[in-house]
Amino acid sequence: MRIDCQSHIFPRAYINVLAQNPYPSQIELRGAAPSNSDRSGGQHGDEFVITYGDVQQFQLREEMYLPERKLQDMDRAGIDIALISTNIPGPCMLAPDLAVKGAQAINDAIAEMIQQYPDRFAGLASLPWQDVDATIDEMDRVHDLGFCGVMLYSHIGGRPVDDPAFDPIYSHAQAKKLPIVLHPTVPTWGEAIKDHSMIPMMGLQVDTSFALLRLILGGVLERYPRLKVVMPHVGGVLPYMMGRIEHQTEVMGRGREHIKQPPSAYMRRIYFDTVSPSPQALRYAYDFSGSEHLVFGTDHPWVDPQIFVTLIEEMDIPDDEKMQIFGGNAVELFGLRI
Questions:
Q1: DSSP string, 284-323
Q2: Residue 39 burial (CB < 10 Å; 0-12/13-18/19+)?
Q3: Helix, strand or coil for residue 1?
Q4: Where are the extended beta strands (E) located within 154-198?
Q5: Under 8 Å between Cβ of 89 and 151
Q6: What are the residues facing 184 on neighbouring strands?
Q7: pLDDT for 219-245, tens place per residue?
Q8: Using one digit for the tens of pLDDT, what is the confidence trace for 151-191?
Q9: In sequence order, which residues have a C-beta less than 8 Å from that of residue 16 and are 6 or more positions away?
């Protein structure tokens, strides 16, 4: 069984909320997208541009996110189930009065997809992280709806993910057994790397690596030892940098104020998804964490899912470990009922 742990939608109801945001990130309609009936069943929708001031823009075509398109691409790649989430910007980037509306719009759309295709989709909830009480209420709501995890972006509207104000959310996620799935967003320092398309090329992964390092060094994983965390893109740069990180903490004695173990001890609790179009990076993540902490992902619709299917199929590892990566780990981690 193949379970895609990183697959995205961008519902129109959320677009309507995002369009009201008074500051970046913002969205504007560019017009009707060209028809692509072969991929979308004759539906093509509109084309939008998401802007982060003058730092970054992303083009969004509605037809790319249609459930019918997603199912077609899943079937082509032999993917049985996709865990659905919204990529960026998340509702934590919106004005406070819009954040809850945005999260509910996303989660309602995901719930509708699951109700329509219960054997093909499961849900990862978006949350209004900047409003702790509202986030806990929304976690309870999506838990009752059967969602299997929640999303956390690499910063919360500019606030670091290890801000102690968010501890009640981490505590509640642990209690509800809802894994936290990290996802990049445009860095607060994006201005420094906006040239040459370096933000999507590298900045997103580096910023997410800093976010996970904050969860470790800030003591979040120390305080919540049963909290499950998924790191995208085969761990970003952290597996590669772990030797230097631990030399700093264990030899130089830096950054150890909130942790009792070496950083690698916390890192080995983390699950990595396989979204990296590089056999070398995938092998490095496998050697670092083992097959039991890798979960299959595709970043659909931004990337052709078959790329990541082929990378795993071609790994020189036992077939039972490939089965773990493709689906077995996800079933256990997210408590999926297959």
A1: HHHHHH-GGGEE----BTSS-HHHHHHHHHTSSS-HHHHH
A2: middle
A3: coil
A4: 180-183
A5: no
A6: none
A7: 999 999 999 999 999 999 999 999 999
A8: 999 999 999 999 999 999 999 999 999 999 999 999 999 99
A9: 105
DSSP 8-state class, residue 228: -
Alpha helices in the chain, H assignment, sequence order: 12-18, 37-40, 67-77, 96-116, 132-144, 167-176, 198, 204-217, 220-223, 238-246, 263-267, 279-289, 305-313, 319-323, 329-334
Q: Is the four-CA dihedral 315, 317, 318, 321 of positive or negative sign?
A: negative
Encoding tokens for residue 124? 């990862």
CA 68 to chain centre: 22
Closest-CA residue to 83 (of 148, 26, 27): 148
pLDDT of residue 42: 43
CA dist 314 and 252 (Å) reads 41
d(CA 69, CA 9): 11
Q: Is it the case that residue 32 has pLDDT exceeding 90?
A: no
pLDDT exceeds 90 at position 43: no
Say if residues 101 and 315 touch (Cβ distance below 8 Å). no
